[in-house]
Design a protein that fits this description.
The complex is a heterodimer.
Chain A lengths: L4 E3 L2 E4 L5 E6 L6 E8 L3 E9 L2 E5 L6 E5 L5 E5 L8 E8 L8 E2 L3 E5 L1
Parallel strand pairs in A: 2-11
Antiparallel strand pairs in A: 1-3, 3-8, 4-5, 4-9, 5-6, 7-8, 9-10, 9-11
Chain B lengths: L8 E5 L4 E6 L8 E7 L6 E6 L4 E2 L4 E4 L5 E6 L8 E8 L12 E6 L1
The chains are: A mainly beta, B mainly beta.
Protein backbone atom coordinates (compact mmCIF):
# COMPACT_ATOMS: atom_id res chain seq x y z
CA UNK A 1 0.00 0.00 0.00
CA UNK A 2 1.52 3.32 -1.06
CA UNK A 3 2.15 5.88 1.64
CA UNK A 4 1.44 9.58 1.63
CA UNK A 5 3.16 11.20 -1.34
CA UNK A 6 4.20 14.83 -1.41
CA UNK A 7 5.55 16.67 -4.42
CA UNK A 8 7.88 18.29 -5.06
CA UNK A 9 10.43 17.21 -2.44
CA UNK A 10 12.41 20.44 -2.69
CA UNK A 11 11.45 23.85 -3.98
CA UNK A 12 13.24 27.20 -4.23
CA UNK A 13 11.27 30.39 -4.75
CA UNK A 14 11.88 34.11 -4.39
CA UNK A 15 10.02 36.62 -2.27
CA UNK A 16 6.70 37.71 -3.71
CA UNK A 17 6.16 34.58 -5.77
CA UNK A 18 3.47 32.00 -5.07
CA UNK A 19 3.83 28.27 -4.68
CA UNK A 20 1.58 25.22 -4.85
CA UNK A 21 2.39 22.01 -3.03
CA UNK A 22 0.70 18.68 -3.64
CA UNK A 23 -0.24 15.80 -1.38
CA UNK A 24 -1.65 12.42 -2.36
CA UNK A 25 -3.09 10.59 0.65
CA UNK A 26 -3.16 6.88 1.27
CA UNK A 27 -5.84 5.22 -0.81
CA UNK A 28 -9.19 5.36 0.97
CA UNK A 29 -8.23 8.18 3.33
CA UNK A 30 -10.59 11.13 3.21
CA UNK A 31 -8.81 13.55 5.52
CA UNK A 32 -5.69 15.51 4.68
CA UNK A 33 -3.99 17.85 7.12
CA UNK A 34 -1.15 20.26 6.45
CA UNK A 35 1.61 21.30 8.84
CA UNK A 36 4.47 23.75 8.70
CA UNK A 37 7.73 22.91 10.45
CA UNK A 38 10.47 25.44 11.16
CA UNK A 39 13.41 25.26 13.57
CA UNK A 40 12.06 28.17 15.58
CA UNK A 41 8.33 27.35 15.76
CA UNK A 42 8.36 23.57 15.45
CA UNK A 43 5.40 21.74 13.92
CA UNK A 44 2.37 23.97 13.45
CA UNK A 45 -1.03 22.97 12.16
CA UNK A 46 -2.18 24.81 9.03
CA UNK A 47 -5.54 23.28 8.05
CA UNK A 48 -7.41 20.06 7.52
CA UNK A 49 -9.66 18.99 4.68
CA UNK A 50 -12.23 16.23 4.84
CA UNK A 51 -14.34 15.24 1.84
CA UNK A 52 -13.36 18.41 -0.04
CA UNK A 53 -14.35 20.71 2.83
CA UNK A 54 -12.03 22.58 5.15
CA UNK A 55 -12.90 21.20 8.54
CA UNK A 56 -10.35 22.92 10.75
CA UNK A 57 -7.89 25.77 10.42
CA UNK A 58 -4.82 26.86 12.31
CA UNK A 59 -3.59 30.35 13.03
CA UNK A 60 -1.97 31.30 9.74
CA UNK A 61 -2.58 34.34 7.50
CA UNK A 62 -4.85 34.22 4.50
CA UNK A 63 -1.85 33.87 2.18
CA UNK A 64 -1.95 30.19 3.11
CA UNK A 65 -4.79 28.34 1.48
CA UNK A 66 -5.65 24.86 0.41
CA UNK A 67 -8.14 22.67 -1.32
CA UNK A 68 -9.06 19.05 -1.67
CA UNK A 69 -10.25 17.26 -4.75
CA UNK A 70 -12.86 14.54 -5.10
CA UNK A 71 -10.14 11.87 -5.13
CA UNK A 72 -8.92 13.24 -1.75
CA UNK A 73 -5.71 14.63 -3.19
CA UNK A 74 -4.93 18.01 -1.71
CA UNK A 75 -2.98 21.08 -2.63
CA UNK A 76 -1.85 23.97 -0.53
CA UNK A 77 -0.96 27.36 -1.91
CA UNK A 78 1.11 30.14 -0.44
CA UNK A 79 0.87 33.51 -2.15
CA UNK A 80 3.21 36.48 -1.90
CA UNK A 81 5.98 34.42 -0.36
CA UNK A 82 8.01 35.85 2.50
CA UNK A 83 11.43 34.77 3.75
CA UNK A 84 9.78 33.40 6.89
CA UNK A 85 7.77 30.95 4.84
CA UNK A 86 10.89 28.87 4.36
CA UNK A 87 10.01 25.61 6.05
CA UNK A 88 9.30 21.93 5.72
CA UNK A 89 5.64 21.50 4.75
CA UNK A 90 4.15 18.20 5.80
CA UNK A 91 0.86 16.64 4.97
CA UNK A 92 -0.82 13.82 6.82
CA UNK A 93 -3.75 11.65 5.89
CA UNK A 94 -6.27 9.53 7.76
CA UNK A 95 -9.83 8.22 7.44
CA UNK A 96 -10.85 11.29 9.43
CA UNK A 97 -12.51 9.57 12.34
CA UNK A 98 -12.07 10.12 16.06
CA UNK A 99 -9.20 8.43 17.78
CA UNK A 100 -7.17 7.29 14.81
CA UNK A 101 -3.59 7.85 13.79
CA UNK A 102 -2.16 10.14 11.14
CA UNK A 103 0.16 9.02 8.36
CA UNK A 104 2.66 11.68 7.37
CA UNK A 105 4.45 12.22 4.11
CA UNK A 106 8.14 13.10 3.87
CA UNK A 107 7.35 16.74 3.24
CA UNK A 108 8.26 19.48 0.81
CA UNK A 109 11.26 21.59 1.79
CA UNK A 110 10.52 25.14 0.63
CA UNK A 111 13.27 27.73 0.55
CA UNK A 112 12.35 31.36 -0.09
CA UNK A 113 15.23 33.58 -1.23
CA UNK B 1 -0.31 26.00 21.13
CA UNK B 2 0.82 22.65 22.52
CA UNK B 3 -1.00 21.40 25.58
CA UNK B 4 1.62 18.92 26.76
CA UNK B 5 4.93 19.25 28.58
CA UNK B 6 7.98 17.10 27.88
CA UNK B 7 11.66 17.25 28.88
CA UNK B 8 13.70 18.72 26.03
CA UNK B 9 16.23 15.90 25.87
CA UNK B 10 17.10 12.47 27.23
CA UNK B 11 19.85 9.92 26.73
CA UNK B 12 19.53 6.16 26.82
CA UNK B 13 22.03 3.34 26.51
CA UNK B 14 21.56 0.96 23.61
CA UNK B 15 19.67 -2.15 24.68
CA UNK B 16 18.18 -0.51 27.74
CA UNK B 17 14.59 0.67 28.17
CA UNK B 18 13.86 4.28 27.30
CA UNK B 19 11.12 5.87 29.41
CA UNK B 20 9.84 9.16 28.03
CA UNK B 21 7.50 11.15 30.28
CA UNK B 22 4.76 13.59 29.30
CA UNK B 23 2.42 15.81 31.28
CA UNK B 24 -1.12 16.35 30.01
CA UNK B 25 -2.34 18.90 32.53
CA UNK B 26 -5.38 20.05 30.50
CA UNK B 27 -6.45 16.78 28.92
CA UNK B 28 -10.21 16.28 28.76
CA UNK B 29 -12.24 13.11 29.00
CA UNK B 30 -12.65 12.47 25.29
CA UNK B 31 -9.07 13.20 24.29
CA UNK B 32 -6.64 10.49 23.34
CA UNK B 33 -2.95 10.47 24.20
CA UNK B 34 -0.81 10.08 21.07
CA UNK B 35 2.90 9.54 20.65
CA UNK B 36 4.78 10.24 17.42
CA UNK B 37 8.45 10.43 16.63
CA UNK B 38 10.41 12.25 13.97
CA UNK B 39 13.74 11.25 12.61
CA UNK B 40 15.67 14.09 11.01
CA UNK B 41 14.21 15.35 7.71
CA UNK B 42 11.38 12.83 7.68
CA UNK B 43 7.70 13.20 8.51
CA UNK B 44 6.52 12.20 11.99
CA UNK B 45 5.87 8.51 12.48
CA UNK B 46 2.99 7.23 14.59
CA UNK B 47 4.05 5.10 17.57
CA UNK B 48 1.07 4.42 19.79
CA UNK B 49 -2.05 5.99 21.29
CA UNK B 50 -4.49 5.32 24.10
CA UNK B 51 -7.47 6.74 25.95
CA UNK B 52 -7.48 5.35 29.50
CA UNK B 53 -5.86 1.94 29.55
CA UNK B 54 -2.23 1.08 29.08
CA UNK B 55 -1.41 0.01 25.55
CA UNK B 56 1.30 -2.06 23.92
CA UNK B 57 2.22 -2.67 20.32
CA UNK B 58 5.23 -3.92 18.41
CA UNK B 59 7.03 -0.61 18.82
CA UNK B 60 6.37 0.51 22.37
CA UNK B 61 4.23 0.53 25.49
CA UNK B 62 2.14 3.41 26.74
CA UNK B 63 1.40 3.90 30.41
CA UNK B 64 -1.33 6.42 31.30
CA UNK B 65 -1.90 7.42 34.92
CA UNK B 66 -5.32 6.95 36.42
CA UNK B 67 -6.06 10.69 36.40
CA UNK B 68 -4.74 10.82 32.80
CA UNK B 69 -2.60 13.86 33.60
CA UNK B 70 0.61 12.12 32.65
CA UNK B 71 1.82 9.36 30.40
CA UNK B 72 5.04 7.47 29.77
CA UNK B 73 6.21 6.00 26.51
CA UNK B 74 8.43 2.97 26.96
CA UNK B 75 10.77 1.67 24.29
CA UNK B 76 11.73 -1.66 25.86
CA UNK B 77 15.08 -2.23 24.16
CA UNK B 78 16.30 1.00 22.59
CA UNK B 79 18.46 0.82 19.48
CA UNK B 80 20.54 3.49 17.75
CA UNK B 81 17.74 3.81 15.18
CA UNK B 82 15.40 4.99 17.94
CA UNK B 83 17.33 8.27 18.15
CA UNK B 84 14.68 10.85 17.25
CA UNK B 85 12.45 13.61 18.57
CA UNK B 86 9.45 12.15 20.39
CA UNK B 87 6.19 14.06 20.63
CA UNK B 88 3.26 13.41 22.94
CA UNK B 89 -0.04 15.01 22.02
CA UNK B 90 -3.54 14.91 23.41
CA UNK B 91 -6.25 15.35 20.82
CA UNK B 92 -9.95 14.88 20.74
CA UNK B 93 -12.55 14.76 18.00
CA UNK B 94 -10.48 17.01 15.77
CA UNK B 95 -7.60 14.63 16.05
CA UNK B 96 -6.27 15.81 12.73
CA UNK B 97 -5.59 19.14 14.40
CA UNK B 98 -2.58 17.86 16.29
CA UNK B 99 -0.86 20.48 18.46
CA UNK B 100 2.78 19.41 18.56
CA UNK B 101 5.07 20.79 21.24
CA UNK B 102 8.84 20.87 21.15
CA UNK B 103 9.09 17.18 21.97
CA UNK B 104 11.89 15.22 23.65
CA UNK B 105 15.09 14.61 21.73
CA UNK B 106 16.08 11.05 22.62
CA UNK B 107 19.66 10.06 21.94
CA UNK B 108 20.47 6.37 22.14
CA UNK B 109 24.14 5.82 22.81
CA UNK B 110 26.21 2.70 22.13
Amino acid sequence: KAGVTQTPRYLIKTRGQQVTLSCSPISGHRSVSWYQQTPGQGLQFLFEYFSETQRNKGNFPGRFSGRQFSNSRSEMNVSTLELGDSALYLCASSWGQWGEKLFFGSGTQLSVL
Amino acid sequence: DAKTTQPPSMDCAEGRAANLPCNHSTISGNEYVYWYRQIHSQGPQYIIHGLKNNETNEMASLIITEDRKSSTLILPHATLRDTAVYYCIDAGYNNNDMRFGAGTRLTVKP
